[in-house]
C-alpha cells in the first residue's frame, strides 16, 4: 500500500526542494538586515566539501560531518562578513559572488585534496547510512512494506523536512524578537538604527554568518544526498539560481523564499516533457514576474491582507 | 552640568560648518539652539551623537568625554535624538518603532529570543508595555499597529519623539520638531516637551518657530555661519542687537513679505 505511492523519483525532487529552501533562506536572512549576499553557492561548497572529506577520510559519523560543514562555512562567514561591512547593495553582491568563484577555483585546483574538477565520489549517502545503522538492530524496510531504496529516499526527505521546519521556526522566532527588530531596523535605515543604540556591526555580521551557516548546512546535506560533488555544483550559476528563488518568491518575507525555492525547483521538472524548451519558459516566467511584481510573489502587504489584518487604521497622508 | 560643548569646530572639505563653539546645558533645562539656515545646528547634533567626529574640540556628557564614542554607545549613555528629515522605520508598526528605541535598555540575544526564555518573555512584555505608554503620551496609541510610513506628518514627528524616549535618555535632542506642524499641533508639542522636562529629561531643541522657542526654552544659543553669536535667556536673545540683525529681524521681514 505505502510502497505503491512512494516513488523514489518524486522523493528525490522533494529532497532537492527542501535543500533549495534552506539555500533560499540563507539569502533571505542576511537580506533581512539589508545585506545582499551572493556567497551562498560558495558557502554551500565549503559545507559540502568539508563534510564529504571528513566523512570519507576519517570515518566520522555523518551528523558530525554535516555540523562541521555548516560550522566551517559559518566561521568563513564571520571572516568574510567583517570586512564586507564596508560594502552594501550591489557592491556587496559582486564581492560575495567573487568570493564564491574564488572558493570554486580552490576546489578545482587543490587536486590532492579535492580531486579537482572531477570532484569527490563515494561520499556516504545519508539514507543508506541510516538503513545500514537500522539493519544493525535487525530492522528491515520490508517490515514496514518498503523496498530498500524507497526507505532510503523517504528517510532523507523526512530528515530534510525536519531541518527545514526547524530552520523556519528559528528564523521566524528570531524575527519576532528584539534581534529581529534590530535586523529590520538596520535594513530600513542603518543610521537611524545606530542612533537608537543598536550595534549595527554585531547584527550585520550575525545575520551574514547565519546565512553562511545555513548555506553550509545545505551544502553538507546536498553532498550526503547526492553521494558525489564537483566544483561545478557550486558555480556562480548556482549562486544566481539561489538568489532568484528568494527574489521570485518575495525577499521581504520568509514565505517568499520557501515558495520561490519550491516553485522554481518544480517548474523544470514538471516541464520535463518539453525538454530544452523548459528553460525558455523558466526565463519567461521570471521576466513576467519581475515586470509586474518586482517585489516578488509575496510581500508584507500581501501577507497582512492574507491574515486579514487592518494594516492602517485611518492613517492619512 | 549635563552637556558641555567645548571649543567645537567642524570642517567639511573647506566649509567651516562650526567654528569654535562653546556652551553648556544644565540638568533639567530646555535649551534652544537657533540660527539661520545653514548655521550649523544640525551639524552640532551630528557631532554630539557622533555621526561625524568634530575637527577639533570636545563634547563632555555628565563629566565624561564622549567625543569619539560610537553612536550606539552614546545612546546607551543616555543621549537620544530625532531627525530634521524624519527617519522612522517606514515599514514597521508604530509600536515596533518605539520598541526598537528600547533596544539599548533590554538585552535578549539570539538564544533567549528563539527559545523564548522566561526572562525574554518578561522583557518583551515590559518593552511592549513601555512602548504603549509612550505612544499614549504622544497621543498615538490608537495607531500602534499602523506602519510608520502611513502616519500623517505631525504624527510621524511625535512618533520619533516617542521612539527616542524609549531609550530612557537623560538628554533628548530634538531637531525642528515643530516643522510642518499647524498651530494646534505645535501647542500640543509644547505640552509634550514640557511633560518630557517634568520627567526629569534635559532637552536640547533646534527650532525655527520663534514663539515656541521663546515660550519653551530656559536658555538659548544662537549660531550664525557656524559661530556662536549670542547666548542667554529668551528675553536677552530677543533684545540682542546682533541677533536681531542676523536672524530675528530677517524672520520678521520674511513674515511681512
Ligand atoms: N555631511 C555634510 N557634508 C558637507 N557639508 C555639510 C554636511 N552637513 C552639513 N554640511 C554643511 O554645513 C553647513 C551647516 O549645515 P547644517 O545642516 O548644520 O545647518 P542647519 O543650521 O541645521 O540648517 P537648517 O536650519 O537649514 O537645518 C551647511 O553649509 C551645510 O551645507
Ligand atoms: Mg538643520
From TrEMBL, chain A:
It is a multi-pass membrane protein. It comes from the Bacteria. It is found in: Cell membrane. GO terms for cellular component: plasma membrane. Keywords: Cell membrane, Membrane, Transmembrane, Transmembrane helix. GO terms for molecular function: branched-chain amino acid transmembrane transporter activity. PANTHER family: HIGH-AFFINITY BRANCHED-CHAIN AMINO ACID TRANSPORT PROTEIN BRAE, HIGH-AFFINITY BRANCHED-CHAIN AMINO ACID TRANSPORT SYSTEM PERMEASE. This is Branched-chain amino acid ABC transporter permease. It comes from Lysinibacillus telephonicus.
From TrEMBL, chain B:
The keyword Zinc does not apply. This is ABC transporter ATP-binding protein. PANTHER family: AMINO ACID ABC TRANSPORTER ATP-BINDING PROTEIN, CONSERVED COMPONENT OF ABC TRANSPORTER FOR NATURAL AMINO ACIDS-RELATED. GO terms for cellular component: plasma membrane. The lineage of its organism: Bacteria, Bacillati, Bacillota, Bacilli, Bacillales. Signal peptide: none annotated. Keywords: ATP-binding, Nucleotide-binding, Transport. Residues 3-250 form the ABC transporter domain. It holds the Pfam family ABC_tran. Transmembrane segments: none annotated. GO terms for biological process: D-alanine transmembrane transport; L-alanine transport; L-isoleucine import across plasma membrane; L-valine import across plasma membrane. One of its GO terms (molecular function) is L-valine transmembrane transporter activity. InterPro entries: AAA+_ATPase, ABC_AA/LPS_Transport, ABC_transporter-like_ATP-bd, ABC_transporter-like_CS, BCA_ABC_TP_C, P-loop_NTPase.
